[in-house]
Input
Amino acid sequence: MEVMVVNVLNGLSWGMLLFLISAGLTTVFGVLGVLNFAHGSLFMLGAYGTMTVMRFIPSFWAGVLIAPLMTALLGMGIETTLLRRVYSRDRSFQLLLTFAVLLVLDDAVRVLWGAAYHVVDPPDLLAGSVRLFSHSYPVYRLFLILVGPVLGMGLWAFFTWTRWGKMIRAAAQDRHMAEGVGIRVPLLFTLVFSLGAWLAALGGALAAPHQSVGPAMGERIVIESFIVVVVGGLGSFPGAFVGALLLGLLDAFGTLFAGRLQMALSYVLLASVLLVRPRGLLGREG
Output
């Protein structure tokens, strides 16, 4: 029983971290129609940026605040100078372009920070552990379990109740009609892509104390994020939440019961969902 509870918590903490990253990926696709291959690199920049900020300002929270904002500005530059030029072209151009951005950012990280791996300590408030039955469980993982739903509800409230959120939804449903009623769609697209970059970098900042920071950390996360959004339904925000929970729990219990086969379980889940429901669990037709 104790082992099961610990694995559920492990799955939830990893799932909520995946949700933070997948939320940005599915938001960008739902509004812009772009599958951003560079999302994992933006996640990695959030982790490296947090580590760098902490060298000058010895505060983890300063890194969590500054690094995602700087990455959002980078995302704004990527959208305005690169992506905006290929919206009207075939989607393969967008995929190739974002993949090229991924390669550039990955090499830039190796040039600026090197190939070594780094460890980021959690803040003092979250550095300890709590007693869970006969186990000690890290407080920081419990924090990750809480921050995912809180941020998810905040994003849902933003898209549902705010004026900007309603304009973004209108532009996602019918770009030409939104332009016809005076909505500045290009500006909205820039803001949405920078929001996606901010979410990816926030996930990286929060992941820094959870895992080692290295130049390959974005590769696994972008694959699992794509699995999350496809399983949940491309462009579906609730689907990203459900998909992240499923993948997080599958990863935790796969490690416990499946051994080496655990690495294949996420792909089995992806294939199973697509066979039964090709648009994903909560995806819309079309």
Observations:
- The CA atoms of residues 17 and 168 lie 25 Å apart.
- DSSP finds eleven helices and two strands in the chain.
- The domain at 2-276 is CATH 1.10.3470 (ABC transporter involved in vitamin B12 uptake, BtuC).
- The first strand starts at residue 129 and ends at 132.
